[in-house]
Amino acid sequence: MGHIDFDPSNFEGREGYFLLTSLVVPRPIAWVSTVSPDGARNLAPHSYFNAISSNPLVIHFTSTGEKDTLRNVKATGEFVVNIVSAPLAEVMNLTAANFPAEEDEFAWANLEDAPSKTIVPPRVARAAAAFECTVNRIVSIGSGNMVFGNVTHLVVDEAVMRDGRVAPDLLDAVGRLGGSWYTRAATDLFKMKRPTYDDVKTKSGERAG
Ligand SMILES: Cc1cc2nc3c(=O)[nH]c(=O)nc-3n(C[C@H](O)[C@H](O)[C@H](O)COP(=O)(O)O)c2cc1C
């Protein structure tokens, strides 16, 4: 058994997508709420999602191609990223169906919204945390349209806090893997303290000795 070589320039169909999304795992899920210019609510998950800057707070999600979320973000410059905890996984998945633009995923998913403090799109009331964002910039690379958002406000449910920090077991966030696979971030937790260079030198000295 050895390693198999892949040349991305020879990928056919969705082969590259399947490899990428099975290997870049687990991916956090940005459950993005937006409104259209005429006020229609929209909600859709995006697992091409990550933190970009912690000072100031900037996050990003990527729309593969042009979807309702991206169209609303381009038109209004605002979006909310809701965090998906395990009890919301199924309803999050429902909102990924290819609803027509005028359909309201909040209503289809029977989800209550809650008003945002700094922007027009509402958040998912039951989500444990939500980032209110204004568009910093949109960068298109290949099939990906990367939306960078300045975080203008952040809410966290106190029920997921312990000792002033977000507790991973209480947050119980869901991660996306390849295909239809998901994982719960809190079911197999372990801790590691990051060593200093001195710690590592001392340890390797001990081993050599
Ligand atoms: C867990 C999950 C993650 C997803 N991640 C992305 C993503 O990162 N980018 C994307 O364009 N679509 C992603 N999708 C698909 C969109 O959610 C789907 O195309 C949706 O219908 C888009 O809705 P909209 O047209 O209202 O924006 C994902 C779907 C699921 C279930």
Could you explain the architecture of this structure?
The structure is a single chain. The protein has 209 residues and is of the alpha+beta class. The protein has a single domain, classed as Pnp Oxidase, Chain A. Helices cover 21% and strands 35% of the residues. The chain has 6 helices and 14 strands. It has a 7-stranded antiparallel β-sheet with strand order 3-2-6-9-10-5-4, covered by helices on one side. It has a 3-stranded antiparallel β-sheet with strand order 1-13-14, with no helix packed on it. Strands 7-8 form a two-stranded antiparallel sheet. The radius of gyration is 20 Å and the shape is globular. The mean pLDDT is 96. Bound molecules: flavin mononucleotide (FMN). The site of flavin mononucleotide has 17 residues, from strand 3, strand 5 and helix 2.
Q: How far apart, in Å, are the first and last alpha carbons?
A: 37 Å
Tell me the strand percentage band: 35-45%
Helix content: 10-25%
What structural category do the secondary elements indicate? alpha+beta
CATH topology: Pnp Oxidase, Chain A
- The helix tally amounts to 6
Number of domains: 1
